[in-house]
Design a protein that fits this description.
484 residues, 9 strands, alpha+beta, Arc Repressor Mutant, subunit A, two-stranded antiparallel ribbon
């Protein structure tokens, strides 16, 4: 058979991932905070897209959606709140006066302050952390240049708990100092506040704190140095055997350790910011009906730029390149607004479906969570599973039972003989409740929990109970037992 080149005409259909489709998918998987940043970025990049400060009645495509679980399919009335108008702003600010009005005799007068007067911006600084606090103390220690280098290296290698993360040999190697110098500087730092700082582990940190209190040779010091695992489990029998002390003495020593010492001395000086969860959806019960409302606080209302639209209509002498540029920007802005609206509608429909499937959860709590998979919701709202997966990723809902991630409502099924299947999350709730109600002197083992669940026709293996217990961050039985 001879090889030859030949042209052939063929018709085929295929899905092309356009830039607009990529943008719609990206918007769909953003959470509430990420969406706000994406809107601001798009407004800055696309001049044809701008915020709408007009009356809410003039908005053609509303973004606010609200309905009850009893509503049938049909047109959804928008729930639109009053927006801030431009005319509602404050009077023009005197920025020259505002930027430099710090004075001990502060007044609201608009007199121009002296040129050398300090500004309030001079007093804005970053929140000091553990490193800054230790360096401030070291400034009063009369260290020479080499000792300062060693001290700064040690301080820089303390973690957020205040523990030293490098060995002494590493300090000597990096700073090129003698062992005696490294040990001396480490002792200097360990004498600073907070007590127990720059220790290598919890045991050493507790001992340093006891030394600061003048109890370096006490029973408490012996316990934290040599019997810390027994202290963690409150094993008084083993402690009495190892130390040769009576139980009352041990109890007093342990109570002192718990009440007066801290295992992580650097934690109160941590500058880590607390990240709060902002719900994407609210589900409220009003007059015995559940109402779904999307969280759109601080989200700007968008519209196409009227200036660019008028320019295309009236300016016939506009250059071809300029006209094409404006048309592309208006087209992208229009697609962005439609994608945003479609995102909100999709999230709303998914939450509405979850509410129908998990109605008992919203009424009675997590113990009544039913088995649910993505395909169930996808079939209910006639969308693809991947769409439901993107919608439920990194998004949270505020419910009468608390704030939950949307993924929480999807749980595997545990089969029960002759009864309805049970969700894995419901079993975790039962395990948590059993542990909370157990006898602290005789806590339930994983095998005992498995047997108690079997009495309710919930048959899961001991290792499954152990897995659920670890996911719930419940300690093993030996750490939950209070010794008699």
């Amino acid at each position: 058979m001879a090889l030859e080149l030949r042209q052939q005409l063929k018709l085929a259909q295929k899905l092309v991932m356009t830039q607009q489709l990529r943008q719609a998918i990206k918007l769909l998987q953003l959470n509430r905070l990420e969406l706000s940043d994406a809107l601001q970025a798009e407004i800055e990049q696309n001049p044809a897209l701008e915020e709408d400060f007009s009356s809410p009645d003039a908005i053609e495509t509303p973004f606010s959606l609200s309905t009850t679980i009893e509503e049938k399919s049909g047109t959804i009335e928008p729930d639109i709140t009053e927006t801030v108008k431009v005319s509602d702003g404050f009077a023009e600010t005197n920025w020259e006066d505002y930027a430099n009005n710090f004075d001990s005799n502060f007044s609201f007068s608009h007199e121009v302050p002296p040129a050398d007067a300090p500004s309030q911006f001079d007093f804005i600084s970053e929140k000091p952390g553990l490193s800054a606090y230790l360096q401030w103390q070291l400034a009063h220690s009369n260290l020479d240049e080499k000792e300062w280098e060693i001290a700064l290296f040690i301080v820089g290698n303390l973690n957020r708990y205040g523990f030293l993360e490098v060995e002494l040999d590493k300090i000597i190697e990096v700073t090129a100092c003698e062992r005696d110098d490294a040990e001396y500087i480490l002792e200097v730092i360990q004498e600073l506040d907070p007590p127990g700082i720059a220790a290598r582990n919890v045991s050493e940190s507790l001992f340093l704190q006891l030394e600061r209190l003048g109890k370096g040779k006490s029973l408490a010091a012996e316990i934290v140095l040599h019997h810390l695992p027994l202290l963690e489990t409150r094993n008084y029998k083993a402690l009495a055997r190892e130390t040769g002390r009576k139980r009352p003495e041990l109890e007093r020593a342990i109570n002192f350790i718990i009440a007066e010492l801290t295992p992580f001395p650097g934690l109160p000086y941590s500058t880590d910011n607390t990240n709060y969860i902002v719900p994407d959806v609210y589900v409220r019960k009003i007059n015995d009906e559940y109402v779904i409302q999307l969280n759109e606080d601080d989200l700007p209302r968008l519209k196409l730029s009227s200036v660019y639209q008028e320019m295309l209509k009236k300016d016939k002498a506009l250059a071809k390149e300029s006209r094409q540029y404006i048309q592309d920007k208006l087209k992208n802005a229009d697609w962005f607004i439609k994608s945003l609206y479609q995102r909100q509608r999709t999230i709303f429909k998914v939450m509405e479906s979850i509410l129908r499937f998990q109605y008992d959860f919203f009424e009675r709590g997590s113990a009544y969570l039913k088995p649910l998979i993505l395909k169930d919701v996808a079939d209910d709202i006639e969308m693809h599973e991947s769409t439901v997966s993107r919608v439920t990723s990194n998004k949270y809902v505020h419910t009468p039972q608390g704030i939950y991630e949307l993924k929480y409502f999807f749980s595997t099924a545990i089969q029960r003989d002759g009864q309805d299947d049970m969700a894995a999350e419901s079993i975790k709730t039962l395990i948590r409740r059993m542990v909370q109600e157990e006898d602290r002197n005789n806590p339930l083992s994983d095998n005992a929990i498995s047997e108690k669940l079997a009495e309710d026709n919930i048959r899961i293996a001991r290792r499954t109970v152990a897995k659920y217990r670890e996911q719930l961050k419940i300690l093993p039985v030996k750490h939950r037992r209070h010794a008699k």
